[in-house]
Amino acid sequence: MKIDPKGDFVFARIEVAVRPDLIDSTAQSFLRRIELANPQIRRKVRWARLLDTFWIDIPAAREDLIPAITSVCWDKVTQWVFTGNLMPSAAGKTGGLQDLMETAPNRPGKFWGIERRFRPGVTDNVGRTLQEAFEIVLGKKLPLSRASSGALLVLEGPELDEESLATIAREVFCNELIETWTLVPEEGLKKNDRFHQERIKYDLPRVPARTSDLASIVRLTGLSDSELTELSKKRLWALTQEEMIAVREYFSRPEELERRQALGLSEPTDVELEVIAQTWSEHCK
Asked: Of 116, 83, 95, 80, whose CA–CA distance to 11 is shortest?
């Protein structure tokens, strides 16, 4: 965390964990999904915790932001919060993730983390809600602020390796169409490097500004299946090839073409396809 002297912008990373004396039901749900996807890898995992992770870039003084984080992000009864050196009293004795790792039943253990966050351009509804919550608590509009959400899955098991963790990330933990993931070794979990200002600036997704407020036509007719997939990736719609084919077929139906012509419409616009993409995407569901 650091305040930018030019504009009093605070860059902070916030990790929220269920207290170690309580059952982490979300982590248990992921373990069940791992069991269904790959029982062999599930047997390698002895302990798991899932932390909600947030990155914020807010124009506010430190003394104002600390109570705001406490109000918005922290349930003192059921949660621990890790923020680097910003709120050292929000967790155990050290205020770091190591406090949570020390509660694992098998000690000494071998720990890993898998961190996920949205790709740039993907709508982050949790991040948007977090931003609005800070505006309410701080009592002012924050048009220049940014907020992003993600998750950190902490696993323990002596037989876990990068290959098995990558399988967990791809098959269970992440949707690679809309999310990226990173493996964090035990040393990285114990250190506070991820809370540094430059790291937070890098981790916060940047969305390029629109050059026009006008909707543009997207021509799907004549595109091959592979070209549809590339179009989805380029526009960050996170639609699979099967979904893109379904969209193309829908807008090519004679009755749909007739209906759109009566309304003065031709092929679909980028706005229509963005709405379809957000409606079908897994993170909105």
From this structure: 83
Strands 146-156, 111-118: pairing is antiparallel
Which residue, among 112, 113, 194, 124, has the nearest Cα to 159 in the 3D structure?
Answer: 112
Residue bearing tokens 């902070």: 12
Cα gap 44→84, rounded to integer Å: 30
Judged by DSSP in three states, 155 sits in: strand
CA angle 139, 11, 183 (to 5 degrees): 130
Q: pLDDT 10s per residue in the chain (285 long)?
A: 443 444 467 899 999 999 999 999 999 999 999 999 999 999 999 999 999 999 999 998 888 999 999 999 999 999 999 998 888 778 878 888 999 999 999 888 999 999 999 988 788 999 999 999 999 999 999 988 999 999 999 999 999 999 999 999 999 999 988 899 999 999 999 998 999 988 898 888 765 444 455 678 888 888 899 999 888 888 878 788 899 999 999 999 999 888 888 888 888 888 888 888 877 755 444
The two tokens of residue 273 are: 């396809």
Q: Where are the alpha helices (DSSP H) in the chain?
A: 25-37, 39-42, 62-73, 97-101, 125-138, 162-168, 186-190, 197-203, 225-235, 241-252, 254-262, 270-280
Whether the Cβ atoms of residue 237 and residue 274 lie closer than 8 Å to each other = yes
Q: pTM of whole model > 0.90?
A: no
Q: Provide the token pair at 275.
A: 């709405």
Peptide bond into 108 cis (omega under 30): yes
Contact call for residues 94 and 152 (beta carbons, < 8 A) = no
